[in-house]
Amino acid sequence: MSYKTIICGYLYRAFDSCEFLFSTIIVKCFQSFLGHPSSGIVADPAAAGPGLGCDRATAQLRVFMYDLPPEFHYGMIAKAPFPAGEIWPTNASELPVYPGGLYQQHSPEYWITSDLLTSNMPDRRAPCTAFRVSDWRKADVVFVPFFASLSYNKYSKSELHTDPNRQLQKKLEQFLKRQPAWQASGGVDHVIVIHHPNSMHIMRDELCAAMFVLADFGRYTSDVANIDKDIIAPYKHVVPSYSADDHSYHDRDTLLFFQGAIVRKEGGIIRQKLYELLKDEPGVHFESGNTQSDGIRSATQGMRSSKFCLHLAGDTPSSNRLFDAVTSHCVPVIISDEIELPYEDVLDYTEFCLFVKAEDALQSGFVINLLRSVKSDEWVRMHNRLQQVDLHFTYQHPTQADDAVHMIWKAIARKLPSLKFSLHKHNRYKRSKQQIYNIKQRSTTTRTRL
Fold first, then answer.
1. FRET pair for 322, CA 20 to 30 Å: which of 1, 101, 151, 443?
2. In terms of domain of life, where is this protein from (predicted)?
3. What is the pLDDT of residues 61-83, one digit of tens each?
4. Which of 241, 212, 78 is nearest to 143 (CA)?
């Protein structure tokens, strides 16, 4: 081992205790002296392409991530068990591939974890918004790397005698409550991704102090999840991205497109009623569909050849259909009164979407006349805006500036002031609680001696 390697090793171990100014110096030390890291995950420079790189000095968020056992994350999808004692994949090329099909739509947990995992590796060239630190006391937030949606999808319908999803949730809750970071904040500064509406259903109430990353609030009471403390993240679109979109207004022959389940429960009752109103209108494609490969293929073709795409409330206020429409550059028509949208504090959806209240939509002729009133130049502006914002709803690894992962981290960063406020309130009686604990301990000790 060369003296340069030894020096860089010492610098790297001291990395998190250095001031921000020295972080870039240490990274450059690794890159220039070694040409590669001594260990750990490294983002593929070729895949990442040109970028600003990731360092603690420029990242908006400093994030501590628990080293949970693989069974909570990549171990669910790894082809073979991790070697004994190993928690994470040894390098970026060995990151297990997330399952395909509809599993993909609730995969933000995977993309966020993968981005954070590679953030503090010296050869990463992709820019970052969040940087992983090794000391929770120096972090803005604490990230919990549990693939909750995958756990639900993979295990909840298991034929095993025990329910692994339920067991993992209980183990996670026990783990977190023992951690000094959780005890110090009551969990207020912790981030947990529970994107599938049924994920973490056993322990979500117990862990509700944390900031959740969700698809919507459809299956939560307001004391468990709400817009003040939590983040809405986009679904991962199921249809392919339409980067080579050359369809103009006149090339899209279909006026309005919907393909999906028509009969739904709860808030989705409106689908059946709208079907009856719209099915025979000229220029409207309103049909049931499936989620198999042929259904996805026909939905892709249909959205790309349509001017407007219908997003209706289903079992929950949101669905991946909205984000399929966005990436197909088909102007979404949103009829879902309770929907919450990702990054709406910085993104004006009226620039590329139309919103219709459910009660208005059920008036005969209302929706179709509204769409026919949109002139070609107005539609073109909305279409152009869709192409501009498409990246904000795209999950990928390595990440790209302002893609979905970066937008989610930025949304978390915008919560920091209110998070700090909650944390300070939580700590108001910290000294008093410690005093009460000390009194009880002394009392217990006295009784024991007697």
1. 151
2. Eukaryota
3. 999 999 999 999 999 999 888 88
4. 212
